[in-house]
Amino acid sequence: MEKEERPMKCPSCDGRGKSEGIACGELGELRCRVMSIPCQLCRGTGGIDNERLQAWEYGRKMRADRLKENRTLSEEATKRGIDIVTMSKMERGEIDARPQPPREDTCR
Ligand SMILES: [Zn+2]
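Above: inputs. Below: predicted complex with zinc ion.
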């Protein structure tokens, strides 16, 4: 059977499409509570394609390396010259942080 086009099971939510998250301040509430939210990695589908999976694994590795060096997220972001939100998204695989071959049309 060909399996190449089927998305793989999302490693973040184990294919459930949901993960436990802390929601704060939404809907005007000031409290924080744990709730089930759609998985950020697979966007609630429970499946993930190879590209995203690799981006996620790269982000995990970045995070592991950072923790080994005892740097905080904000220190790492400063070191890389990016903001902490971007850094955090890179570590979660929401932004593909893998080195990309330079492309002329994205040069500024
Ligand atoms: Zn997921």
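The longest strand covers residues 18-24.
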